[in-house]
Amino acid sequence: MNTFFLPSRFVGVSSHIARDLQKPLRTSRCAVRNISHTTTKRVQYASPWEAARAEARQKNRTTMYYGLSAGITLLALSYASVPLYKMICQQTGWSGQPVKAHDGAGDPAVRLKPVEDHRRLRITFNSSVSDTLPWKFTPQQREVRVLPGETALAFYTATNKSEADIIGVATYSVTPAQVAPYFSKIQCFCFEEQRLNAGETVDMPVFFFIDPEFAKDPNMRGIDTITLNYTFFKARYDKNGILTTIPMGMAVA
Fold first, then answer.
1. Which stretch of DSSP H or E encloses residue 31?
2. Is the Cα torsion angle 96, 97, 103, 105 positive or negative in sign?
3. Do both 145 and 190 map to the same domain?
4. Tell me, what's the pLDDT at 153?
5. What is the phi/psi pair of residue 84, to 5°?
6. Were both Cys, which of 2, 68, 132, 215 would link to 248 (CB 3.0–4.6 Å)?
7. Within 45-80, where are the H helices?
């Protein structure tokens, strides 16, 4: 058998020829894929009506995802409603929640300077209870009159009318809502466990003042009456040992 050997320069030339022969093959494959992709698109959206329907389905799917996310968020917030409500409202005054502005600003006595030349404000008191809570809950006074910067003490009375010991938790708000940033409490029974034995009656104090800055706010000029409202809910400890309320409707005490 005769064996032939090609010089090395011919080997390099043959490699170039092989690559050149493969280029049309790769190009044809890409062309086939592009034609297939274009054909698929044309089949999927054969008419403007079908394209519009596809776009609408995509928008509906996106809206559904947003709705599910919002629902899950609201469900999570409901489990932390009382502590979260307390934290947000006391920092911002949102929803008529009095602000504990003096708690982290040193001695509140520095702010307790009655504005003698200001008219006295009429503070009225309201109360309500959840219909799942068999308590009688009422303010002991209808109203008090105070100057901005002057402290005031008021009392509520709660009676457990059932034959079982019950835990209650109170929330509170101020109206008009824009007054809330100026309503500061020094002592209060809100957002804390209040356990009443069967048939027990207790007095609950509220020690508060209207911040002197109230008198400097031009938006407060037309406000003469402020209402403090407390609402009691039946409460229980969840499986994690956290006290939560059971809001199931309201009944005025």
1. helix 8-44
2. negative
3. yes
4. 96
5. -70, -45
6. 132
7. 48-79
Q: pLDDT tens digits, residue range 175-199?
A: 999 999 999 999 889 888 899 999 9
57: burial class by Cβ within 10 Å (0-12, 13-18, 19+)?
A: exposed
Q: For the whole prediction, is pTM greater than 0.85?
A: no
Say how many domains are in the chain. Answer: 2
Length of the chain: 253
Q: Is residue 77 a part of any domain in this protein? A: yes
**Which residue carries 């079908």 as its tokens?**
50
Tokens representing residue 88 in the block? 């947000």
Q: What is the mean pLDDT of the chain?
A: 74
What is the C-alpha to C-alpha distance for residues 137 and 1, in angstroms, rounded to an integer? 117
Q: What is the pLDDT of residues 204-214, one digit of tens each?
A: 999 999 999 99
Query: For residue 85, which phi and psi values (nearest 5 degrees)?
Result: -60, -45
